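SAMPLE LOG
Freezer: B-3
Tube label: C17
Construct: single chain, 259 aa
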Amino acid sequence: MNSSTSALSPNVSVLIAADPYSFAAQTIADAAKTAVESRGKFTISLSGGSTPKKLYELMASPEWASKIPWNKTEFFWGDERYVPSSDSSSNFHMTQQAMLSKVSVPPERVHRVLTEKEANEAAALYDQEIRRVVPTGPDGVPVFDMMLLGLGTNGHTASLFPYQPGLHEKTKLVFAEEIDEVKMTRLSMSVPLINAARQIVFLALGDDKASVIRDVVTGPFDPERLPAQLVRPSQGELLWIVDSASAAKLPEGIAQPAQ
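STRUCTURE (predicted):
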């Protein structure tokens, strides 16, 4: 992602998919296969929201469920609302209802945020759980095989919201923060943890995302206003999966058809 021109860095791709959910599911299945063959397990951090819910429902369908090594996949979440795990607004609850309850995932491979704890304690415990399960890179930061992210119309991703102190968190893997914009405490993975992943995938669909995708991908570097611009993988690749509507305002040549 270049801060001054519309050119993309070599490790960044924007792909327009005719069927973005199937394309995303295939991307996850391919990454899982590679990870299991190379390292014996697949570590993925999931996102919340309505867009990934449809993806998770697809992945749990008979057509796709057989393509995912559920018993060798470690599931985490990039952020969580500070609500009970049974609350309808919980990212864990949504994923559980849409996918995890419908497939054969060993319970010990599902790593939710313990929101029954005090918020900062829950963040610290999640930090510890990530370090326990996810192998670390040379710099000591755990390296997820895949980090699945969404994009808010305000430019936020995970629970990295505009103009929040958490954008500058460098030592904690996970932190808790009161977000005035949504009047809620959120727990979020920090930027260094997100950027350490082998593959980061944004799934951003619909015409309401067209302006913010253009600004994040090709606009001036202004991460206080557009936190998603902080997502710049240190070693891995960044893939944007978009549809024709969300790609509509990108400069010519930035997005390519998905194959």
